[in-house]
Every structure is written in structure tokens, then in C-alpha cells.
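ARCHIVE CARD
SHELF: 3
SLOT: left
DATA:
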Amino acid sequence: MLGLFSRLRKPVERVHAISSRPLRILESRQSSLAPMQWQSHYCSTMVYFWVAVVTEEVCRSKYSEDEKHRVLQRVFARIVKEMRGVPAIAKKCVLPDGHPHRLKTLADLKRAVELRRNGADARLMIYADYREAVEGDGRPAVFGNHWGVRTEAAHEILLARYLASNLTAR
């Protein structure tokens, strides 16, 4: 078991570093919303599947599906704890297959993932959140944030805006 943990330490750290950035941006810009996100089905689902996407990118074919799942679970729990949440509650808020709101959540996530991988899509510039994220690409992070984030990428801004808009609409 110790060998497995040491084998997964590196991907866990890499996945955590990448997947936690949008949440750090949200917390640095709207810190009052950060603890509430783990009670939102939309936010918990968005973050869980964002971590899953990053896990797949980092681990690729080097790791088995079981190992990837362990990395996903560890990183998700770590992020929730860092953002003042309870992992068990956040995990229960992840929408199950077939839930009608899960499709909308995953469609929003897909836009952010495509922005990360392929750059801006001119067809999506009609959406204010998307346009503002693309225009803000590379903007400096909030001065003095304790996470050490220096610049904000467009996909990170977009994910943070989706989470914030869902939380403020509640």
C-alpha cells in the first residue's frame, strides 16, 4: 500500500496544482462564496468533473483506471478541505447520472475545457461570461492573495465565474 501511495504522490500533487487554481481565483475575488459552494449541487458537480478532466490529462495511460480514480478522490477531498468544506457532504452533492441539471453543468464545464485545450471559440463570444474570461486571459491575480496565483488564465476565469454566478443566483 505504501508503494501505491508513493507512486500516486506525484500525480496527486500535479492534479491538485492545476485543478485548484479556478477555486483559488474564486476565493481571492469573492471569498464569502467559497464555503457555500460545497452545498451547491452545480458547484460540487462542476469541481468534481473538473478534477476528473485534469486527472485524465495528467495521468493518461501511465496509470490504471483504479489509480486514476484514487487520484481523483484524493484531490477532490483535499480541495474541499482547503476551501473550508466537508468532503463527504460535497461528494453527496455531486449530481448522479441522468439528473437533468447535470447535463447543464457538464455543458458549462465542456466550454471551459475546450477553452483550455483549443483557445477561444468565436461562436461562444456572445455569452458575457465567456467573452469576459477570454478578454481577461493572462490578467494579474488579485494582489496579495495567499495562494500565490500570479496570473489568471481564461479557462480558470470562466470556471470561477460559472461557480460564482451559480452561488450568487441562489
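SLOT: right
DATA:
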Amino acid sequence: MNGLSYSRCSSDGSFDYTTVKDILEKWSTVQPEKEAFVGYDVDGNRTSITSRRLYETSVAFSKFVTKSGLTKGKCVVFCTKNSIQMLQAMFGVQIAGGIPIFTSCSMVDGSDVIDLVVDSNSTLLVIDEADGLLSSCLYDKIVNSTSGNNIKQVKNLITIENSVMKNTSAETGDTLTIDLALTLYSGIKLPELFPEDISVYFNTSGSTGKPKLVGHTHISWHNSTHTICNLMDVKSRSRYFCDRPFGWSVGSPRIYLASGATRVFADTDLFLKGGNTDRLADIVRRERCSHVYMPGYLVADMVARPDLAPNFTTVHSIKCAGERISVRHRELLGLFCRKLVIWYGSTEVAGVAAFSSPQPELYLPGIIGTPLPGFEIKLVDGGGNVIHQGQTGELCVRSVHRFVEYRCMPEKFSQAVDPANWCHTGDMCHMNADGNFIMEGRKSDVMSIGTVKVFPYEIEKVFLACTGAAEVAVVPVPDIRLYECACACVIPKQGTNMTVNDVFEFCDGAWKPDAIMKPRHVILFNQFPNNDSGKTDRKLLAQEARKQLGLE
């Protein structure tokens, strides 16, 4: 469509009409003794599991939960950290026909976990035995509750540690090892699975209100991964490092399912909190990783430590995703990897677009590239009409790989997926003449300054020329006349003595005096608040800005 913001890429034919169980069984046959997953805990201890062992123990766990009363189509809440045992339990639940839902516990009393259990009508909860305080709180709330059926609906609370499974709330009170379950429950019949059964619910961050449970089938869960594996040159012999939680779309074990490549992982909190850059580099070196997933906070850590580059000599490709890229990403190319892949996707539609080039200067801020095979992309205005190239509009995606439902939220699904099967992402982009799409921000991030709609990026990109700024995030704060105005939140570069006045002087030189986008306020930060995925939490940052400026 000449001149319009539309692009498509035909499917490359990589599609498996199958189930998770069948895929696990395939790799257990094709490469039985190959390491499927390698994990490192916070103390640096290494564990691993082969393809054959993973399949056999997952089947054992599936029979354990089937015997405990799990039936096909029922939800199972997981509150666990990345571990081999979590994989066995997660795959086991899927083989038994259950649908995993993943969460983490933020409240001391575990009430947030209980809320999810209640909302999802789950009858089974899986937690880490190692988290003794949480398991005790949840046990008291579930087993000893007198508050009615809302909590008593949980008939089974299973804790996992090493290879031991404990069903602490069932009448039987089973405690046994995975190996014993292999023999003890060999006669239990498992349900028949179909490729279009829902196999997982990914829990969204809830940035738009109440968290949504995004349902994917067996085929949509991993099939789009073939395209990114092809782009990154991932083969079954590859070794892929990713520290993201198994319960997140980008961290799910889909690379292993799609390619058979070994997944190397670590405790998620290890690198998110910072200060462990050397350990990451050591894991990559020890495991001879060929591919690495690197979120923004790890990119920042690595480009600040070029001395660690020798640890990455085996790395062919680095994949960056999950947030808008900046110019610092291009510093990875040639130093930490031979190929840099910028990947764009969402929980609802998986991997949608990607960009890669041997020329660092082509990695423009916000670039997400072109559609992956099997995807269509268009940009639309507020009326749903396709806009011309160069204009900014909402990115919409159409593909067979998209999610199938928001659990128990049909009205939300109808808002996200229109009658023509286009999924509206809420991401605002423009399309360049060369066919590449450029991310400008979230629809919800738009500021209204004197009725003019302004994206934070339009202001942030100007600060690329501010040599003393390490990172800049622009957030809206209240203004008595304009409704909102821009506040520049700045993290100075280490070793500089940047002041607020220095930033205002830069702004005076960059914008005309009456420019509506010129920041009215400047605040210096040592670091920005992050959400659970390591991205800058713009809502919290805006709250802190309003507090410091006395504009609450």
C-alpha cells in the first residue's frame, strides 16, 4: 500500500500443530542426554537437567497433580522463582491439562497471591518450599481459614524443593520425590490434549487497572518463536542465556521448545538489583553461551564495563526487547556480540517485528524494524483509519499467533481485538520510508500540554545531545494554565557535577523560549524507580516528581 503505514511478511512455513507434551517428548527422543536447562542460584550453584529427564519428571509431576484432583482446563497459580523444579511442575501441570498462571508475592501476608487464586478460581497453588515464611502464611490462610469458600477452594497447596513435592493441604498429605512418583503413579491416565487448548495464562502488569490474564494455546505459545530463532540463528546446539522469569512471555521456555537449544538461566533478582555484572559475564563465559537476552538494565551495565567483553567471545547474537531502545544499545555490536537483534512484541501477540543490521548507526532510538514472518502491521489514527508514512498512530497487529482471550474479561478482549482480527497494542509508532517502524511511546504516556498532544520521546530525544546526562525520562506534572507541562528527570553521568541550572541552560539552547515542549521543571535523580520487569516506572517517577515539586 504505497505511502500508507502498512506492512506484512508472509509466513515462512515454520508451524507446529502440536502440544507442549508432544514437543517435550520429541526433544527427549532426538537429544535425550543433551542439557535442556542450566540454572544458577544466588550463591552461584549450578544445576541442570537433560531433555529426557525433563520429559520424564514432568510426566511424573502431571500424574502427581492428576492424582491430587487437578482436571483439564483448571487453573494453577505458581508463586515460584526460576528453577529446574519450577519447570518440572509447570510442564507437568500443562501435560495434565491444567493452565499455569504465574505471579510473585509482594505482600508480607501473601494476600496478593490469594487474590489471584480467588479471581482465577484455582484449586491448586504451587510455591517454593524454600520460602518458609510465605508457605506458612499461605498454609494458615488456606488450610485453617474459616472465611468461607473463597479461600477454601484451594484443595491442594504443593511446595517444591529440589526433587521433593509436598502436598500440604490435601487430605492425603503426600510427600514424595519425583522419582518415586514415576513408579508410584505409572498407572494414572492423563487427559488427551489438543493443539488449540489453552496452555498458559500470562499475567499482565496491570498498568491499565486490574491485571489481565492473557490466554495462549499450545500452538500460539511457541510457534511465533520459530521466526525469532531464525533471525537470531538459534539452532538446537545453541546455548541461550535469559534471566527473565519463566512465567513471563519473554522469559518463558519457548526458545527450547521451538529449537531444542539449551536455556541458561539465573535467579531473576540477581541481575535486576544490580551489582552482579561480573557474575553475569562469568556465567556467559563458563557456559559458552552463543545467544543472550539483554534487557535495558543489563545493556546499561554492560556498556559501562567494556573490560568484560572478552567473556562474550562465544556470543553470536544479543536480543534486546521489552522497552524502547536507545543509542546506547548500538554499543553492544562488535564488542559484546556479532549480531544485535531488536525484537518487538507483547504478551498478547508474542514476537511481532525485529530489526538487525551490521551498521551501528542504523539502530535509531525506538526502532523496532519490520514484521516477522506471519505478521501484518498497520498504524491507525483515532478513527481506525490507516495513516500515511511519517505520521504517528497506534500500532495494530494481525496474526494467527495472537492470544485467544483475556480470562473472564470478554469486554476487554473486544476492546483489544476488533472485528477484522486486528489487535490494538496501545503502542504509538511511525513508519519510515525505508519500511522500518519506530516506537514513540505508549498511548497512555501522551502528555496534554495546552491541548497539544506530546510524546515524552519527542522531548527525550533532544537530550541525546546533553553530554552530561546519562539518562533522561520526561514525565507530565500539573500546570494551572496548560493542564500539564514537561518535567525532565535526569540522571547525571558519573564523574560529572551536573546541576539543575546546567540542564536549564541546555534547554535554553535547544528550544525557543516559548516552545511548548520545553521542560518547565528539572529534577536530578541518582536512579529511576523500576517496575518488576526492570523498566523505568513512569507512573511512579511522575508521582515522585509531583511530590518533589509540591504539585500533588
